[in-house]
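Homework help board

Subject: predicted structure for assignment chain

Our instructor gave us this sequence and asked us to write out the predicted structure in token form, then describe one feature. I got the tokens but I'm not sure how to describe them. Can anyone check?
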Amino acid sequence: MKMLKQEMTQEEYYRGVRMVPYDLVKELFLALAGLGIFVFVLAAAFSSPDVPTVTIQQWAQNDPVDFVSTAAGELAGTTTSAGYGAPYNNAGGEQTWGPFAPQIWFGQRIPIDSANDFVIQPLKYASAGNPGLTTAISTWTSADGDQQTKWVTAYTDALAKATYADGKVSVADGDYGPLPVMMSALLTQGQSGGLDGLLTGAGHFYQVDYTKALLFMGDGNYLFDLADQQNLSGDQWGMMNETGSYPGQTWLWLYTAWYQVWPFTSDTGVLGLNGGNADLGVVVLMTLLTAALALVPLIPILRDIPRWVPIHRLIWRDYYAPKKSAAPARA
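My token output:
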């Protein structure tokens, strides 16, 4: 009896006096709800703006004069992509540092003919069932280089005072050859969204190659103006995936910092390294620094710095503190 009473007392102790009902599902729900609200508030306060993707269609609709001016520049061969050099074309301008010239070594790996790829070829796709456009393209392609230059120069000059109304870019009267018809058709194609599809992988099931579309937009002012509004114009520190002026991608600060200091800001520089080949110089410098960091355990003197300057002992002072020996037990 005494043993049974003792067991019952223990059962009461464990199952009655010291235990209370507990709803695990309710606790989990409250925890997730609280955490969700906390995350939502922080996201609303500190998240980056969700800026939609920039497209050629958006460019052609929002700034048609710049779109047409850029297309004319492609035909004239005066745009950035037309004179970029390898890997897109053989226009020269590759960055070199003495005998070190990787752009020249690898050469033209992504061939792009700006005039043909961005203007002529898309117009040929659009000319089906359009005799007027077909005739305009034929007139342009059959003309000699001097005649094409006269047309496009006159047209480009006139675009400085162009106006846009009723879906058409209008310029003063002049001898522009077939360019007004060609540019009007290309603008219509751009505003409809058809040019986006043609420049992002026409003929391929997966349209994921944005090289041509980005090069074409990069030749104009529209994309640069958008970047400038988001503080991404390139003359500021930092680079970022997401838009906004702060804080940027911290892992790229070390790269962009070099562009702010000599000799990468100089026209003359030193030992052939200057602002003209800053991209190549920064890549070489960062490669050397990264290799040095990886080889620290093998480089004499450099590997001994932590032992000579024991900052780690200050940070981990509790670990390196002398251990007190325990007092001997008394008999």
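Reply (TA_rk): Your tokens look well-formed. For the description, you could write something like this. The chain has a mean pLDDT of 85. That's the kind of observation they're looking for.
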